[in-house]
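Extended Data, record Polysaccharide pyruvyl transferase domain-containing protein
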Amino acid sequence: MKKVSLFIIATQYDNVGDLLINKCLIDEISKHSTVYLDAKNVPEKFKSKLLEGTKNVYDLNAKTGYSLKGLGFIPLLFGRLGFTHIFKSPGPLGSNGSSLVFIKNIYISLIFGLFKLKGVKSYLVGNDILLQGLRDKVMIKFYSWICNAILVRSQKNLDDLNAISVKGVDYIPDMCFGYNIEKKEPETIKLIGISFRDLENESHTTEILRILSEIINTNKTEKFTFFYQVERDYRFNKYLYDHFKTNNLVSFSEKCLTWEELPFYNKTKLLISNRLHVLLLGIVHNSIPLAILNTNSKTEKILNIFKTTNLKEFIYDTENTSNLNEIVRFSTDVCDKIEKVRSEQKNIFSYKIKKLFK
């Protein structure tokens, strides 16, 4: 039987990390089925990157004139495209205290439910299920009744869902591990990349500057580049850079990193950040990740994913402060471990997606 997937794009459009995880999931699904993207109200540039380089991925609205984002789901429900699977964007899933977001999530679950009545298999893949209150628990239990499987990207999230008896849950690596890259040549490994989001915590900012000072000021040969891949991170990274700009080995990239510029990571040997997909892009390019975290909920996903993938030693926080020199010495053992994790997680990612189409 021919497999046909419907993919609802519902994500942030100003973050290359969100483009990355959507693209990786869509590309992997397209290995096993034809894919129609419900891209209504998605910026054209974002949508074009999702379609780029694909052979059997199509814009649903351009093909049919309909979308699930509104009453268009009715003709799609009874249409002739023959959907067999339905997905939505990966990433965080929860209300975050917002009634409007809760209603939107329930709306998508109802769409999933209606397609289930038509025999269509539905999946949540690569999500962090947020459980911040009763509404979130009600929402995910409703999804678990509808979905054939819910695949989350950390063992901690999996354990939390099992604890409240959510059915059909399993682990899948972050979609970033599915990113296909050209193997890096040794002579291109030159830079230490630095990129942070502002957690608006003065003591944490002071700690970031202390650690960066320890690394940069004791270095005599390595080059450092401050950069950002989310527009709103510009000001904070510029602020950090200004503390080291008199050092000739330190530079700042004024332009926000775009999808086309992701090969930048091929030039790096170490990534220092509190942004999840800066660190994971480092890993998939076989660079060493150094996560500088505090207890902010926005970075909890990094801690959970690093624990799941046996990379906790690469987290520098209040519980783990003795490993800095070990991480930045670039030993063969450290680099081999990063490559092993990258390879294992990529294989698990591909295997788990393939299973959805058996």
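Summary. The longest strand covers residues 121-129.
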